[in-house]
């Protein structure tokens, strides 16, 4: 039983990894905590939901349109809204927070407070995996899809970062923005592109999210705290750290939900976030992140 | 300048105070008293928040934690011990300040965005506790407490005047801090914490104290609000929207200025009430607030007061370009007598 | 004349100008050293030339072209490389990746490889440590790597900001030797800021003394080394050197 729960937690953790990958990448490059990240995810989930309920397009398929759209939105938002503000982290956090409540307000006005979720033909399908004669894992298809898709996304991100000129420029900017500028990296463009990639990845996260969870306009507040806990634990700005933290927290959450009083597990989440930020801002994985 | 203009310039504070004193007598409908009371709560909270967010540069998005804690403390002590909230609210707020000092001391280690997120996490933790420790807080439905003893026809009027009194106190404290050596240290921290440390400012102690003082005025408002509401629930007592009001008011009026937070609250709260009244849907209200916040940060990052002062100073500078008057001197001239100007006090 | 600054006014905040009408020039294949007290604006000069700062008044002319206020990546295209103060390598990248970052703006792979070979020629030990993480190199090695990275663009001029900062005497000696050797072998022009004025002037042809954002004195390096005022203020004390260490 516990193994079953843990495996489902692990699959969920994979989806978490996609949800937060853009957030940690954006922090790495810009030192901005994008509080609107979860709100953008919910926006993407709504788009997937509307496309599904209106036109019958499967969320996995609708990504083809949503992802480039989000990339574009991200690039423009960074250029026109974030970058003119300068680099006061407090002000930037407030600004992304303002974007988040704007999205919340708009989505709430359009769709009300009813919780939505995408119910496809395969939503309740389950694949049984027989490990031994007395242990059969039952894997929900949606979570498995999410998990696989997550690794595809993370793989693509990894390739972009490590095998492309843009990736080199992004990594250089993360490690030393001034030096990057001095070797000819146009860091203004790197920043806006990174923000675009960040939102594109959360657009994918949102489409997967719409298959697994139910949401309304206000859901982003619960999710941003969870996302922050993950990337803070993984070491702000570290993609591998975020992946490991996402898997760990996915499992921990699933297991604690069945073993503890229901409200303790979210409090533990926030406590971890709070204490890590205060006492170990470089994250629990020990990934070295320079000045942030 | 006209005579009226000169008079206003000299005595505007008394004019404003006089107006606030007669306001509930002129607009007698309960609606106006509630609106005035809410505005005063936010003005007081913003004045307090500004000591940390404006003077010190640490922008908290979780200070309504203290609003919520005191709201509950007041309700619980009123129910269990029969304490009168009018005196227990300011007193219990002192206790909440002690809690804030401890939390502030823990959080003084976090900087920049880490600090902001830690404050949000703090709020969410307390909200979850309020929702779930049902034996103390009554859980999601919340708590009720005795009604205020005065007759309903006075509605919120006594609360209004009581809150006005506390706003004056908050302003006096803020003005005093701004002028003091302690306040100078806070400004130094805002400008460059490392350097402030090097010139001998005890940055940790200063930050923790600023955290506590700002928490006091927010907690105070929470306590009085609790009494006025008679019924409180976690989603309203521990709401990040309370922080949004406070922060937005401060930024709108002028971050780090004495009067900015008050001015901001007096524009924001009636304004948002207008939107609520005319468009109803609270979600739309939220979107308007979000856009407003973006617009303020982008186009008026320093707020109304500093921008106005700059404009005034610039106009004078061009008219007195050849007399050699500097901007700073001009600014101080434009301050009415008796006001605490929004500029550095000389080091003692 | 390769580089000329005329009456440059620049600073970090709108209200405070660090440079207050500074002029200086550098000839082709010269090594010029800027010395002066902290806050005189030495680093600001370099940052203004490389485009990290935009001058509010005055002009920066490189090889006959006005480059005042041009973006850093475009200044680089003109052939001016800037090695900033402190650590500026990319610590999580390997030594080789750092060098390749130096040629980030070059898309011709064959050209990049040729330049890589040329840099290896100058610093043979780079080849042995190509895979090593830059952050694990010693301070002196990192400084040489940063210089090597700047050379990947075959710049005509190099701006060096405190190349000996934080290095022990032996290592800073190596760094200064390298700079001097580079000029002799490649004919590169160097404008350098150096707190350790004696060593800096030791390899320079000329020097400027900066004070309060202006040039106060311009002499040949040997004259500055012999000047009693300069000696008293910037060379003799050894206080500066102790502070450095």
Task: Draw up the topology in text.
The complex is a heterotrimer of chains A (292), B (348) and C (245).
Chain A: H1 2-30, H2 37-55, H3 59-82, H4 89-111, E1 126-132, E2 135-140, H5 141-163, H6 165-175, H7 177-182, H8 187-212, H9 220-234, H10 239-259, H11 264-279
Antiparallel strand pairs in A: 1-2
Chain B: H1 3-26, H2 30-55, H3 64-80, H4 85-107, H5 112-132, H6 134-137, E1 143-144, H7 157-179, H8 181-191, H9 193-198, H10 203-229, E2 231-232, H11 234-237, H12 240-253, H13 260-279, H14 282-299, H15 304-319, H16 327-334
Antiparallel strand pairs in B: 1-2
Helix pairs in contact in B: 2-7, 2-8, 2-10, 2-12, 2-13, 3-4, 3-5, 3-10, 4-10, 7-8, 7-10, 8-10, 12-13, 13-14, 15-16
Chain C: E1 3-10, E2 19-26, E3 31-35, H1 42-50, E4 57-62, E5 65-66, H2 72-78, E6 80-83, H3 95-102, H4 109-122, H5 125-128, H6 139-151, E7 157-161, H7 169-186, E8 189-193, H8 197-202, E9 206-211, E10 214-220, H9 221-226, H10 228-236, H11 239-244
Parallel strand pairs in C: 3-8, 3-9, 6-7, 7-8
Antiparallel strand pairs in C: 1-2, 1-4, 4-5, 9-10
Provide an overview of this structure.
The complex is a heterotrimer of chains A (292), B (348) and C (245). By secondary structure, chain A is mainly α. Helices cover 73% and strands 4% of the residues of chain A. Chain B has 348 residues and is an all-alpha fold. In chain B, strands 1-2 form a two-stranded antiparallel ribbon. The C terminus of chain B is likely disordered. In chain B, α3 packs parallel to α5 and α7 crosses α8. Helix content of chain B is 75%, strand content 1%. Chain C has 245 residues and is of the alpha/beta class. Chain C has a single domain, classed as Rossmann fold. In chain C, the strands form 2 sheets. Chain C has a 6-stranded mixed β-sheet, with helices on both faces. Chain C has a 4-stranded antiparallel β-sheet with strand order 2-1-4-5. The termini of chain C are far apart. The C terminus of chain C is likely disordered. Chains in contact: A-B, A-C. At the A-B interface, α4, α9 and α11 of A face α5, α12 and α14 of B.
Task: Compose a concise summary of this entry.
The complex is a heterotrimer of chains A (292), B (348) and C (245). Chain B is built from 16 helices and two strands.
């Amino acid at each position: 039983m516990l193994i079953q729960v843990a495996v489902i937690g692990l699959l969920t953790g994979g989806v978490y990894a996609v949800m937060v990958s853009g957030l940690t990448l954006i922090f790495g490059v810009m030192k901005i905590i994008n509080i609107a990240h979860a709100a953008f995810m919910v926006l993407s989930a709504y788009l997937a939901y509307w496309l599904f309920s209106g036109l019958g397009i499967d969320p996995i398929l609708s990504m083809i349109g949503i992802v480039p759209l989000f990339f574009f939105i991200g690039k423009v938002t960074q250029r026109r809204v974030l970058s003119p503000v300068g680099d006061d982290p407090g002000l930037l956090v407030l600004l992304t927070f303002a974007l988040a409540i704007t999205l919340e307000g708009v989505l709430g006005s359009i769709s009300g407070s009813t919780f939505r979720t995408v119910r496809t033909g395969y939503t309740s399908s389950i694949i049984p995996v027989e490990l031994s004669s007395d242990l059969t894992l039952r894997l929900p298809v949606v979570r498995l899809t999410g998990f696989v898709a997550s690794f595809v996304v993370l793989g693509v991100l990894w390739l972009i970062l490590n095998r492309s000129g843009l990736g080199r420029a992004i990594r250089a900017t993360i490690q030393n923005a001034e030096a990057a500028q001095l070797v000819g990296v146009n860091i203004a463009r790197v920043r806006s592109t990174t923000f675009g990639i960040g939102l594109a990845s959360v657009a994918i996260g949102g489409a997967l999210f719409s298959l697994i969870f139910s949401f309304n306009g206000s859901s982003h507040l619960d999710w941003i705290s969870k996302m922050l806990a993950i990337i803070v634990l993984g070491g702000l700005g570290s993609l591998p750290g975020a992946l490991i933290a996402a898997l760990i927290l996915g499992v921990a959450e699933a297991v604690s939900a069945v073993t503890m009083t229901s409200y303790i597990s979210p409090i533990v989440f926030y406590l971890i976030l709070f204490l890590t930020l205060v006492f170990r801002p470089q994250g629990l994985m020990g990934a070295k992140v320079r000045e942030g | 300048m006209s005579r009226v203009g000169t008079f206003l310039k000299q005595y505007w504070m008394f004019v404003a105070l006089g107006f606030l004193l007669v306001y509930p007598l002129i607009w007698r409908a309960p609606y106006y008293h509630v609106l005035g009371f809410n505005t005063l709560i936010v003005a007081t909270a913003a004045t307090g928040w500004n000591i940390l967010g404006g003077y010190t540069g640490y922008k908290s998005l979780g200070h309504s934690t203290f609003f919520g804690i005191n709201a509950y403390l007041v309700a619980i002590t009123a129910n269990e011990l029969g304490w009168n909230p009018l005196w227990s609210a300011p007193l219990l707020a002192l206790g909440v300040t002690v809690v804030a000092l401890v939390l502030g001391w823990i959080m003084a280690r976090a900087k920049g965005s880490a600090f902001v997120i830690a404050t949000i996490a703090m709020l969410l933790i307390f909200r979850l506790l309020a929702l779930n420790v049902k034996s103390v807080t009554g859980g999601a439905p919340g708590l009720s407490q005795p009604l205020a003893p005065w007759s309903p026809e006075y509605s919120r009027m006594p609360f209004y005047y009581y809150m006005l009194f506390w706003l004056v106190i908050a302003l006096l404290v803020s003005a005093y801090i701004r002028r003091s050596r302690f306040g100078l240290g806070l400004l130094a921290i805002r400008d460059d914490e490392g350097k402030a440390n090097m010139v001998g400012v005890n940055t940790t102690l200063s930050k923790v104290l600023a955290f506590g003082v700002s928490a006091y005025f927010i907690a105070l408002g929470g306590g009085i609000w609790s009494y006025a509401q008679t019924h409180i629930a976690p989603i309203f007592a521990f709401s990040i929207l309370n922080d949004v009001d406070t922060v937005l008011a401060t930024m709108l009026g002028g971050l780090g200025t004495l009067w900015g937070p008050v001015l901001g609250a007096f524009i924001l709260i009636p304004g948002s009430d207008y939107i609520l009244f005319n468009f109803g849907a609270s979600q739309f209200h939220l979107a308007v607030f979000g856009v407003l916040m973006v617009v303020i940060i982008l186009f008026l990052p320093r707020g109304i007061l500093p921008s106005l002062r700059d404009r005034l100073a610039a106009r004078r500078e061009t008219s007195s370009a050849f007399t050699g008057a500097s901007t700073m001197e001009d600014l101080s001239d434009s301050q009415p007598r008796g006001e605490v100007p929004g500029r550095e006090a000389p080091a003692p | 004349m390769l580089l000329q600054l005329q009456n440059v006014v620049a600073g970090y905040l709108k209200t405070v100008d660090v440079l207050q009408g500074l002029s200086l020039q550098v000839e082709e294949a010269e090594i010029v050293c800027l010395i002066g007290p902290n806050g005189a604006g030495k680093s600001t000069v370099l940052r203004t030339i490389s485009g990290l700062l935009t001058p509010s008044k005055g002009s920066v002319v490189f090889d006959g072209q006005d480059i005042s206020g041009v973006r850093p990546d475009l200044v680089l295209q003109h052939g001016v490389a800037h090695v900033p103060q402190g650590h500026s390598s990319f610590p999580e990248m390997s030594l080789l990746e750092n060098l390749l970052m130096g040629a980030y703006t070059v898309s011709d792979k064959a050209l990049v490889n040729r330049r890589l070979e040329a840099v290896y020629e100058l610093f043979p030990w780079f080849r042995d440590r190509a895979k090593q993480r830059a952050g694990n190199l010693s301070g002196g090695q990192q400084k040489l790597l940063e210089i090597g990275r700047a050379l990947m663009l075959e710049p005509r001029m190099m701006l060096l900001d405190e190349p000996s900062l934080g290095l022990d005497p032996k290592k800073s000696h190596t760094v200064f030797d390298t700079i001097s050797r580079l000029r002799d072998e490649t004919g590169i022009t160097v404008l350098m800021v150096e707190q350790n004025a004696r060593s800096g002037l030791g390899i320079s042809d000329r020097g400027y003394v900066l004070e309060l954002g202006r040039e106060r004195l311009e002499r040949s390096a040997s004259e500055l080394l012999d000047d009693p005022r300069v000696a008293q203020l910037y060379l003799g004390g050894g206080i500066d050197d102790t502070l450095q260490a």
